[in-house]
Amino acid sequence: MGMCLSGDVRGGKQAVGGAQGRPTEAHNNNKIAGGGDGHNDAVDFFFRSRGLHALFTQIELSLSASKLRDRDITSKSDPMAVVYAKKREGTLEEIGRTEVVMNNLNPAWIVKVSIAYQFEIVQPLVFHVYDVDTKYHNVSVKMLKLNEQDFLGEASCFLSEIVTQQNRTSTLNLHDKELGFRETWGHSLSMLRKQLLLGVLLKYHSTVLSWQMWTCFPKVILS
Length: 223
What we know:
- The chain has one domain: C2 domain (Immunoglobulin-like, Sandwich), CATH 2.60.40.150.
- The chain has helices at 25-29, 38-49, 159-163, and strands at residues 3-5, 15-16, 56-66, 79-86, 92-97, 100-101, 113-118, 124-131, 150-158, 169-176, 181-191, 196-197, 200-202, 209-210, 220-221.
- It is mainly beta.
- The protein contains three helices and 15 strands.
- The strands form five sheets. The protein has a five-stranded antiparallel β-sheet with strand order 7-3-11-10-14. Strands 5-4-8-9 form a four-stranded antiparallel β-sheet.
- β4 (79-86) and β5 form a beta hairpin.
- Helix content is 10%, strand content 37%.
- It is found in: Cell membrane.
- Its main location: membrane.
């Protein structure tokens, strides 16, 4: 089953949790995904030794998922996505969170995650999806303790893999390593400087990683 969305999500979805504030440009520079490996250090030294700064642009990640597991007994799961930058030593640094979407196994989150894309830096990203317990629905998403929520799955990719796609949309399998369970989700991005808003198309795939061509929704260009 496929789903086609635009960046303007309206109606029919109930969400809880405040929208997370967008990081500043300086803040994003300090949260470059995957910073710290040997190649990245060398690139950073090259620019700094010449009094230059690495080229980057601000982008936004729009997240959605499909066919999530239903962890609730009397209702459907209430999913929230968390985006991390993976460091050289394997540790994860949180970049941002979406809102919580109520009773939905195919969520299209409204809150976007802002990140600085550096053209010469390898930026591994990790995505976690959680089912937020009902008793936390009045708690701000920033204050939610993830170890108290039900883990629904994980996906990962490099930021450049999304940016270099012609339609800037990708589809990943969501894995639950403990249960050996796979689900499909996707993410897209909009380039802030060009104000180009793109849609996302989701379909189930049995492969570990697959790219989904986007053909069913027109582009919206804001001038």
